[in-house]
Structure formats: C-alpha cells, structure tokens
Amino acid sequence: MVVTPVSHRQPSAALPRFALVLLRTLVAWHFLYEGYYKAMLPAWSGAGDPLGPWSAASYLAAASGPLAGLFHTLGSPPLASTIDTLVIIALIAVGLSLMLGLFTQAGCGVALALLTLFYLAHIPLAGVLEAGAEGAYLLVNKTLVEWAAVVTLWTQHTGRIAGLDCLIAREIRGTHDQPPGHERLAEGAAL
Amino acid sequence: MTLTDEERRRGRRNFLKALAGVPPLAAFGAAAVLDGPSRGGPVKAGFIGPGRQGKVLLGQCRREFIDLRAICDINPRNRAEAAEGLVKLGWPRPTLYEDWREMLAKEDIEAVLIATPLWTHAEMATGALASGRHVLVEKMMAYDLEGCARMAEEARTRRLVLEIGYNRFYAPHYQAAYDHVIQAGVIGDIFHVRLMYHRKQSWRRTSAPPSPDYSPARWGYPTWDHLVNWRLYRQYSQGLVAELGGHQIGTTCQFLGSAPTHALGSGGTYRFTDREVNDHVYVILEHPKGRTVTFSSIESNDFDHITEQFMGTKGTLVIGSEGEVMLFTDTDSTTPTGIEVTRKDGNAVLDASESRVADARGRPAAQPGAAGTGGEDRLLPYRLEIATFCSAIRTGTPLRCGVERAAQITATCVAANKAIETRTHVPVATLT
C-alpha cells in the first residue's frame, strides 16, 4: 500500500464543488430577491412603511459613460415601462435558474448580460464615496465582482455538479447511450 | 429491478444532487413571505365630510399611502373646495358624491375616512364596515355607547380595521412624554390631573349657505344653522366635554393607565345663551386608587387655553397648547424635556383645526410668536394617524388608539354630560 504524505494530498473535489454550488445559490438569491422585490412594488414594508412603485427610469436617466445615450433612451418613454417589465422578468428568471440549477449556463449568460449593463450604466470613476453607495469604488465595484463570480459559475458548469441540469444531462446521456430495444429488454428484466 | 446497495446509494445521491436547489428555494420563499414587502399599493379610499376638520385630515393624506378616489359631502361647496384642494396638490380629480351610500355602492374603494358631525358616525361607520370597507372616523367614536358597540361589533365580525381620530395617540411629543416621563416614573405617582380647555370665543360659526335656496333638511338638519353649527345642538353633539375634552380625557387614561369609574359635574349656558349645549362645563373624574382628574372648558376666558397638568409625588408634567411640554421636579425649576417636533412642510390643504386654533393666550397658531408653533409640524399626528390606518390595513400594524380606548372615552364623556345635567355622581359605563 502506498501512503501519500499529508502535505502532498490532492484537495478533495467535493469541497470546491460545494463552494461553487454555494456561490451559485447566493448569486441566485440576490437576483431572485431583487426581482421579487421589484415585482411586489408598490407594497408595504414589514415595519408598515409604504414602498412606492419601482422603475429603472431614474437609474437609466442618471447613467454616465460611453453608453449613456443608449441608457437614457431605454429609460425614457415609450421604452421605459417595457424595460421595467423585462428587468423584473430577467432577474426572477436568472434567480430561479441559478437556484435550481436549471438551464444554468443560459441563466449565467443572462446574468452576465444584466450585470454588464448595470456596470456600464454607472462605471465607478470617481474613486470617492458617492451618495447612495455603501463604499468608495474606483473601477471595481460590487457589480463587477458579482459579474466575475458569474463568469466563474459559467466556466465551471455548476448545473452538472448539482441541480436539475443533472437530471436533464442524465436523460440525454441515457437516451444516447442505450442500445436499440433497451426499453423492451428492461421491461423483460423487470418481469 | 434488482439493484446493488452501491447502485441504490448512487441513485439516492444523484436524486439529492438534482434537487439541491429546492431547499434554498423553499428558504427563499419563507424568508420573502416573513420579511419581504407586503403586496399592495396605497389604500383606495373615499372621504366623507370634508368640512373644516375634514379638510385638515384631507390635507394630511399622502399619495404614497392613500389613493383618494372619491369625496362625499352634503354641502356642495365643501365638495368643490376639497376637490380643488386635492387637484392643486397634484391629486387626480376625485369623483364627487352627495350621498355616502351612493359612494359606497359605486366606488372601488377599500377604506372610508369619516369627518362628519358626531351623530352620524355610528350610522356611516357601520354602513361602511358592513360594505366591507375599513373605517377611520373622527372623534368622538359615536354619539353614545350603543353606537360604539355596533361599530365595534361590525369591525370585529368582518375583521376590518376601525380607527378613531384621537390624534394625540399619534403625536410624537405626547408619546415621548408618556414614554420618558410618565413610564420612567420621573414625576412619581400621580394622584391629580388638571385638564383645561379654555377659550374666549363663542364656538358659533358664521358661514353662508352654498346657495340661497340650499336646504340640508333631507339630511336631518332643519335649517342651515343646524348644519353649520351642529356642535351647538344636543341632537347632533355631546358638547364641550366630547368635542374638546375627549382628547385630554384620552391622554389622561393613557398616562394613568386606567379608566375613570365615576363622574361628577356642573355647567350650563352662562355666557352664550344662543345654544343647546353648555358653554361652561366643570367635571371631576374619579380613577381607581384615589386618582382624580378635573376638567374645565369655558368660553369666557382663554387663560391656560389648552393645558394638562399631571401632578405627581416627585414633580409635575405640564403640556400646553397641545405641543409645549414642560417638566417641573422637586429638585429644580423648569427642566427642558428635550422633546422636539419635526418641521412643517406646508402641504396642508388647510392648516386649521378645532383643537389647534390658538396658543395659551388665544393667538392663532399660525401667528409668528405663538407659543409652541416655532415651525413644528403640528399636523404631523394627523398624517401619522392616516398612514398608520393604511398600514394597519395592508400589514396589520397596530393602531395607537383603537376601538377599546375610543369607546372608553365616549363612555366617560357621556357619563360626564349626564353628571352635569343631573348634578349626580354618575358611574362610567364600559363597553362589553
């Protein structure tokens, strides 16, 4: 028997896989709640305070940077209400996709598209604490960090680690791998 | 199908992996339901009675919590003025009604705000509750305890929100005094409370009818004067004790943590004999454990104006003009209370109120230099009252006055009036 020294052991594959699924779940929760919250508005907080209706219009109207003109157009009538609806649907769809590990790669793709737009609309160039922000950012903000996290999830195909994509992949694999007449043979075996 | 133990284990593992996202999703759902926002925008409401007091309430409605869709008043001038006031503040023009029943039948509303003469409260509130609408009704709750009982029963059985407009329960300075002075025991045990609502004015209002041929007779007011001066007629009003003293009696019940058991009284129409209700009233209210409250409301002298004095074994708390809070203890003279009121934002349709017309010497509240009017938002309690009412409908936020307190105040006012009338020792009833 060959004993590998402790210091030379390969890390268990389970831990990074678990970490990836955990990361996917956290990102999913973030997207899902953002979408759920916006979809609920106008509403009331648990403390009994009224919460007004939501619209991306003010966020888009305040956009700066090279694509500012495009964002201003998106945030103005007649597109604004359509954009609001699409953003809510997209956030919820991404959240459910990543949470359940269903069509995970597509979910990551939509998430990356959204995060890219969010980042480009407000690229942090000031480098100082700005109104409404909870920290001082220069080029890198939490949107960009989350974007990088989703890139990681996308490259690692986390739906195959855990999630409903496993079932889909197995179903496809099973259909492709089974020889002709497999179903009949299986039925015979069961009998 | 025969499977090995290893195959069974692998099958179970695969199944669990596939469903790994379900527990987080369930956790998300639970968390969102428990701590997420409650669905529903501003409460769709109708308003009955935008007269003088009604306009004060109307002016404190905000679009983030209430969606005023309809206005009802038997006086066409009130209806038109209220609608214009709302439009000026940026509201959509409300639908106008003369008959509150028609408004309830036609409008898609969830709640009704009522600021009509006292004698109509029970009928309108029970009617609105019976139609499935939540109700915020101005004080007093009803003309008598029977009316209170009907309102309370209707709200209870239909599980609807019923709040009564004793806005002092929403006044930050009153509640700060209660929390930080009374509850903290700063003035010790209170054995005596003096309540004064003194004014040097007639209480009679002079206002022309909306048109020469206008008659409110079909609404139960034989003449225009019966409508515009309803407070002066016993059929419609419980007089000074109810209309003015009710606020102070309510505050006292809260601060003492008890309701009065008996009332003694005196009073009459001594200065202004043009009315049915008394223009001078003097009441003694006996609370348990020997605590005694005196209340006087006179129309011949405005010294002390609106004042409450809570006299404890360690000090005295004085609240004047519904806003100025002073604390006197045995060890020092005047102690600043540190109680402040937020600034005024000037959005009211009409900054006037039955209980906020003047300071301790009768100067109008809006006059520069009037005590306790240094820019405070004196209408904030009304706004908080309406906002909390809407919040209670949507999220179950607790009401600060509520049916029980309001009914107790009604019982006390009714007993006090009976004591004044009969010059006897009258027990205060309780709502069963």
Indicate the mean pLDDT of chain B: 89
Distance between the termini of chain A: 45 Å
User: Which secondary-structure class do the elements of chain B indicate?
Assistant: alpha/beta
Shape, per Cα inertia axes of chain A = globular
Helical content band of chain A: 55-70%
Total count of strands of chain A:
2
> In what range is the share of β-strand residues of chain B?
15-25%
What descriptors fit this protein?
heterodimer, A: 191 residues, 8 helices, 61% helix, 2% strand, globular, disordered C terminus, B: 432 residues, alpha/beta, Rossmann fold, Dihydrodipicolinate Reductase, domain 2, nine-stranded mixed sheet, six-stranded parallel sheet
What's the helix and strand layout?
The complex is a heterodimer of chains A (191) and B (432).
Chain A: H1 14-40, E1 43-44, E2 50-51, H2 57-61, H3 68-74, H4 79-100, H5 104-121, H6 142-156, H7 164-177, H8 182-190
Antiparallel strand pairs in A: 1-2
Helix pairs in contact in A: 1-4, 1-6, 4-5, 5-6
Chain B: H1 5-18, H2 22-35, E1 38-39, E2 43-48, H3 52-59, E3 66-72, H4 76-88, E4 95-97, H5 100-106, E5 111-114, H6 121-130, E6 134-138, H7 145-158, E7 162-165, H8 172-182, E8 190-198, H9 224-228, H10 239-256, E9 262-268, E10 280-286, E11 292-298, E12 306-312, E13 315-320, E14 324-329, E15 334-335, H11 380-395, H12 402-422, E16 426-427
Parallel strand pairs in B: 2-3, 2-5, 3-4, 5-6, 6-7, 8-11
Antiparallel strand pairs in B: 8-12, 9-10, 9-16, 10-11, 12-13, 13-14, 14-15
Helix pairs in contact in B: 6-7, 7-12, 10-12
What do these coordinates show?
The complex is a heterodimer of chains A (191) and B (432). Chain A has 191 residues and is an all-alpha fold. Chain A has one domain. Chain A is 61% helix and 2% strand. Chain A contains eight helices and two strands. In chain A, a hairpin with a 5-residue loop joins strand 1 and strand 2 (50-51). Chain A starts with 13 loop residues before the first helix and ends with a helix. Chain B is α/β, with parallel strands linked by helices and 432 residues long. In chain B, strand 13 (315-320) and strand 14 form a beta hairpin. Mean pLDDT of chain B is 89; it is low at 340-375.
